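Tokens in:
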């Protein structure tokens, strides 16, 4: 086999394997129940969710999602640290959607977390994607 052909095969293999690793890195585990499932990381939704987060949620959760926003100090119950790896691992996307839409009382928490009934499902999904992205911080 000519050397150039071998090099082409090696490069092709690197591209195929490399793209497989990149795709696997973009998978985000969803759910927290008995049978975890995966969804593709949606960059556009995450960016839209970040915009909503930085206008509504940061006041309590902080710019980086650590629960250290400017209003957090006056609350009886500290806002959730959304970067906490244990919380990220054990909290389902459905639970996050519920608390975003219905506020703290929707999941048995304090009413300090207000409901957001005006958000569209796309905005809520964007917020969920952004919250999930905070796991790496």
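Residues out:
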């Amino acid at each position: 086999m000519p050397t150039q052909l071998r090099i082409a095969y090696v490069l092709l293999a690197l591209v195929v394997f490399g793209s497989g690793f990149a795709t696997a890195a973009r998978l985000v585990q969803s759910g927290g129940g008995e049978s975890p499932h995966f969804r593709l990381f949606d960059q556009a939704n995450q960016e839209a969710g970040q915009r909503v987060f930085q206008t509504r949620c940061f006041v309590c959760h902080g710019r980086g999602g650590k629960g250290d926003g400017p209003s957090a100090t006056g609350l009886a119950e500290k806002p959730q640290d959304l970067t906490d790896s244990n919380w990220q691992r054990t909290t389902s996307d459905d639970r996050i959607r519920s608390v975003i839409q219905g506020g703290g009382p929707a999941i048995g928490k304090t009413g300090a977390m207000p409901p957001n009934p005006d958000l569209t499902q796309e905005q809520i999904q964007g917020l969920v994607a952004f919250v999930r992205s905070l796991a790496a911080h």
